[in-house]
Design a protein that fits this description.
The complex is a heterotrimer of chains A (about 350), B (about 270) and C (about 350). Chain A is built from eleven helices and eleven strands. In chain A, strand 4 and strand 5 form a beta hairpin. Chain A has a seven-stranded mixed sheet with strand order 1-9-8-7-6-2-3, with helices on both faces. Chain A is of the alpha/beta class and about 350 residues long. Chain C has two domains: about 190 residues, no CATH class; about 140 residues, no CATH class. Chain C has 13 helices and eight strands. In chain C, the strands form two sheets. Chain C has a five-stranded mixed sheet with strand order 2-1-3-4-8, sandwiched between helices. A three-stranded antiparallel sheet of chain C has the order 5-6-7. Chain C starts with a helix and ends in a 27-residue tail after the last helix. The chains are: A alpha/beta (about 350), B alpha/beta (about 270), C alpha/beta (about 350).
Chain lengths: ~350, ~270, ~350
């Protein structure tokens, strides 16, 4: 399904989505974030500081609560996510591709109860990147594109005073059908313009991973390279790169006690981070990844070697957040290029 | 798999035995499901045990899959959850979910000589294989168990090991000589070299401290064991058991899914990061 | 006006003569115009060093890292380590010496004066220059940016970090060698100006403000990780990163109290940030790095400035002013006000 939507009608479209909570990028406290729509929506954002992954994989979620009177068996009450349907407007194609990767992690092997429950209620209305939204974009190096529809339900392309609206999934069609009368049929001129806008978008200069196909093998050969410690020399071991990543999925599970007699609390999942030293530390104190170099290697190899080996695609979608936001300039594109170059 | 993969079943502790005393003591626990039936497991698989309010820990199941009434775990008191486990009493209720990971290919080993080589609490993960093989004694040729502890007081499953004699060759050892100890004195890998097991139609299964495993494998190789004839188990910090929480990977493998059981042929292909 | 060649010459010379084993400095990064920290160990690497308005980082952090590495690997330090330090960075080094983290003779301070300016606040730059600049340079009271559309000159004050505008000591008093003029006394903005503006609001508005700020924290711990004063091996927010060694007993691990849960929720976030602010009282030298690195833009400087101003007004204490001075929280004077005890 392909339609034309005049820009001034986007608010009417959103209003017509009864039964959906709609989110769109908003500049709040100096950062771009997805917020429930209140007022007019203008999709002129760069990219949000955080991807929309938290909608299906929130930074904190309670699995179940427990209660135990001393001497008795514990009582568990599972807490499942709400069933609110959420549509996110303005998702960049890299973040749509991030969702594809998260879906594989949480859907393959065994389905993750909580992720799946949330994910099936989330729809992504994407926005093609006519211009790279960041100076550190490199989606073309990781199999993506500024006009990719992967993981999206709808793709909007900005044609000046109107959007070219293309449904990608059945959910996307339903979102459009809900406001059928607002859309126009695309004319030949619209299709022509779409084509040229997409062609121009694809030709925009980006950062680049050199010879991306060779990367997994080169990384594999470089596991023991001393370069890792050198490249990680400035790393401060914070969690910015992974907490802002559209594909990082690592988590921790802890019990949070809220009362002692009777014992009460929650078992809670929170995001965790391979760049924190205690991430892999055994109870004995032994740590398989004891240094910043080993932890940088894990982050890079997970995205560019292990994930491709397991799922046939890089885990990185080239959004560039980890580069732009790193406090000390650790740059995954440059790291990959240097390791590959060094591997000869 | 249950509807909610993170929701543990409740299980009651029906048996506790202190195997090893001291600061890093080891206790054996048997648990039975509170609500009747529970999951089945295979040799080498693990389960996530919970004490609510304390958290979860991944422990290998030490009982044979042939035992249906209970599951056995031998747990060293080493951290937050294991210390809390050691404070429990018979009748207390804990959480359990699983089974996780792959298993020893025991069925492929029928008709072979089996060598089990354990150190410290590393006897527990291979114990289900030993007891399964003994229960199906006729399916296997010679069964030999090497096992060692730092001192006679660090030997776990003492009575059970004694009971094995007659159906299996048992070679115990302690690291340092001590009065009253008349078996081998020295490290486990040396005890193996001393007895010179033959690699002919054999499988060696080893588990223990990393340094022990390293030298056991080295020694087995020098005795002519091929990489495919040597099996061990890995451990790593784990939170989910399902290949999702992202921390137990060695290279592309999540140990909780692709492991913990590896042949040396498989393991040596992984990056040395464990 | 500092010529970067002088800094390079000094670094090269120190390394060539073996007077230092490494120089911690800045080099051109691979993303855009921003400089990045680097540790050079060979004289020929000195040419990599840069000095420009994107040298935001407080490199004293890497002195701490170096010390931790040496302690961990049980290596003797040998020759001193050199560091390029702005006024604020040098104050951080002084605090670390006050706290006996290392000795004066173990560090060779290559001071650089910020003269009449300071470092850039990248967030302020949006809208001021076209496209993404590839280079930034000091030029008197201006910054000059290289952009896709040519050079663009801006008065530094328009895009400088608040911390630099408010800086009272833009010259590294503690140094072995120093480049640039001492312009201490320049008044670009009143000290604590941002804090004073903030405090014009009532208590309710301030509380609402902080509730919103802390709601947003994602607990990436970049503020803690980037801070040279946050050197504790054992941090109150971590339940398990306290130094676990083979000899750490099960009881120590089991009985570890979780003061702060991992959940990034407001109550836990506030406890974290308040604890950190208290721990920095009289130690924070206002390099502003915590605020710069925060990916969700929490104005952490306001918190630390508040503590700094309290120390100054109530106790006449300036952190990082003198190596010999006792630290604020480890000393008392008979004349200290007791009014905080109520």
């Amino acid at each position: 399904m392909e339609k034309i939507l005049h820009k001034e009608r986007i608010d009417d479209w959103i209003s017509a989505l009864t039964g959906w909570e709609v989110l769109s990028p908003a500049l709040e406290d100096g950062i771009w974030a997805y917020r429930p729509v209140s007022g007019a929506v203008r999709l002129d954002h760069p990219n949000t500081t955080q991807p929309p992954k938290g909608l299906a994989f929130p930074q904190r979620e309670v699995f179940f609560s427990f209660e135990q009177i001393k001497g008795e068996a514990p009582r568990l009450t599972q807490i499942l996510p709400d069933t609110v349907q959420r549509a996110v407007f303005g998702v960049r194609p890299c973040d749509g591709r991030g969702a594809v990767r998260m879906d594989r992690v949480f859907g393959d092997h065994v389905e993750d109860t909580y992720y799946q429950a949330r994910r099936k209620n989330v729809a992504y209305v994407g926005l093609a990147c006519n211009q790279p939204p960041s100076a550190n974009c490199f989606c073309l190096s990781v199999g993506g594109s500024p006009v990719s529809t992967d993981g999206l339900d709808v793709l909007l392309t900005d044609l000046g005073d109107r959007y070219f609206v293309a449904a990608v999934t059945e959910t996307g069609k339903a979102l459009m059908t809900a406001a059928n009368s607002l859309f126009d049929e695309p004319a030949d001129a619209d299709r022509q313009q779409l084509k040229s806008v997409h062609t121009e978008a694809l030709a925009q200069p980006q950062r680049a991973v050199h010879n991306p196909d060779a990367v997994p093998a080169k990384l594999k050969a470089s596991f023991k390279s001393p370069l890792w410690e050198e490249l990680a020399r400035a790393c401060i071991g914070c969690g910015i790169c992974t907490f802002l990543c559209p594909t990082c999925h690592c988590f921790d599970i802890n019990d949070e006690v809220t009362g002692s007699a009777p014992l009460k609390g929650n078992r809670v999942r929170t995001w965790d981070n391979c760049q924190f030293p205690d991430f892999t530390m055994h109870t004995s104190g032994h740590n398989p990844r004891p240094t910043v170099g080993a932890r940088l290697r894990q982050r890079v190899c997970h995205k560019f070697q292990y994930f491709p080996e397991n799922f046939g695609m890089p885990q990185c979608t080239g959004c560039g957040r980890c580069i732009s936001e790193c406090p000390v300039g650790i740059d995954i594109v440059s790291v990959v290029n240097k390791v590959v170059e060094h591997a000869g | 798999m249950p509807d909610n993969i993170y929701l543990p079943e409740l299980a009651r502790i029906t048996y506790i035995k202190e195997e090893v005393a001291g600061e890093r003591s080891i206790k054996t626990f048997r648990v039975e499901p509170v609500n009747g039936d529970s999951f089945e497991h295979e040799c080498g698989q693990c389960a996530m045990l919970s004490i609510f309010g304390r958290g979860e820990m991944m422990i290998s199941i030490a009982s044979s899959p042939l035992v249906k009434d209970y599951k056995q775990f031998s747990i060293m008191r080493v951290g937050r959850v294991s210390a809390a486990f050691h404070d429990l009493a018979v009748g207390d209720v804990v959480g359990i979910r699983g089974p996780y990971g792959n298993s020893f290919p025991v069925d492929d080993w029928r008709g072979k000589n089996l060598y089990f080589i354990g150190g410290g609490c590393g006897l527990a993960p291979i114990w289900p294989v030993i007891t399964t093989a003994v229960a199906q004694r006729d399916s296997f040729k010679n069964i030999t168990v090497f096992y060692g502890g730092r001192s006679p007081r660090d030997i776990m499953y003492k009575a059970e090991l004694e009971k094995l004699r007659g159906v299996a060759d048992v070679h115990l050892s302690v690291d340092k000589a001590e009065d009253g100890w008349d078996a081998y004195c020295g490290f486990v890998p040396a005890n193996v070299m001393d007895k010179e097991p033959s690699s002919d139609n054999a499988i060696a299964i080893t588990c223990g401290p990393p340094i022990m495993i390293k030298y056991v494998i080295q020694n087995l190789r020098s005795l002519g064991f091929a990489d495919e004839q040597i099996y061990t188990t890995l451990e790593n910090k784990m939170k989910c058991g399902l290949g999702k929480c992202g921390r137990c990977n060695v290279g592309k493998d999540y140990v909780c899914v692709k492991g913990p059981v590896y042949s040396w042929a498989e393991l040596k292909e992984l990056p040395e990061e464990y | 006006m500092i010529n970067v060649r002088d800094i390079r010459d000094a670094a090269r010379d120190l390394l060539a003569k073996g007077e230092v084993r490494a120089v911690i400095g800045y080099r051109r990064g691979s993303r855009g115009m921003a400089a990045e920290p680097v540790v050079i160990t060979a004289p020929e690497q000195a040419d990599e060093l840069v000095w420009d308005p994107t040298c935001f980082h407080n490199l004293a952090l890497y002195l701490v890292e170096d010390r931790k590495f040496l302690a961990h690997s049980r290596k003797a330090p040998g020759a001193p380590i050199a560091i390029i330090a702005k006024g604020c960075d040098a104050r951080a080094i002084v605090v670390l010496m006050q706290e006996h983290y290392f000795k004066r003779e173990e560090v060779y301070i290559i001071g650089v004066s910020c003269e009449g300016v300071g470092v850039l606040d990248e967030r302020k730059l949006a809208g001021h220059v076209p496209g993404t600049p590839t280079d930034a340079a000091f030029e008197g009271d201006d910054f000059v940016f290289t952009t896709p559309e040519g050079e663009k000159r801006l008065p530094a004050r328009e895009v400088m970090a608040d911390r630099c505008l408010e800086c009272r000591a833009p010259f590294p008093k503690e140094h072995n060698v120093v480049f640039g003029e001492d312009k201490t006394g320049r008044e670009l903005a009143a000290p604590f100006a941002a804090l004073a503006r903030f405090e014009e609001q009532g208590a309710t508005e301030r509380w609402d403000f902080w509730r919103r700020q802390f709601e947003r924290c994602i607990r990436c711990f970049a503020c803690r990780s980037v801070c040279p004063m946050c050197y504790c091996d054992e941090c109150v927010v971590d339940s398990i990163t306290f130094p676990v060694a083979p000899e750490t007993t099960a009881d120590e691990k089991a009985n570890r109290i979780r003061w702060i849960e991992r959940s990034a929720v407001r109550s836990e976030n506030i406890t974290y940030h308040m604890t950190r602010a208290m721990h920095l009282a009289g130690r924070c030298i206002d390099c502003g790095e915590c605020e710069r690195v925060c990916p969700v833009n929490i104005p952490l400087r306001l918190l630390n400035n508040k503590m700094e101003r309290e120390a100054r007004e109530r106790f006449g204490y300036e952190p990082g002013a003198s190596i010999g001075a006792a630290s604020l929280v480890a000393s008392f004077n008979d004349s200290d006000p007791g009014s905080f005890i109520r």
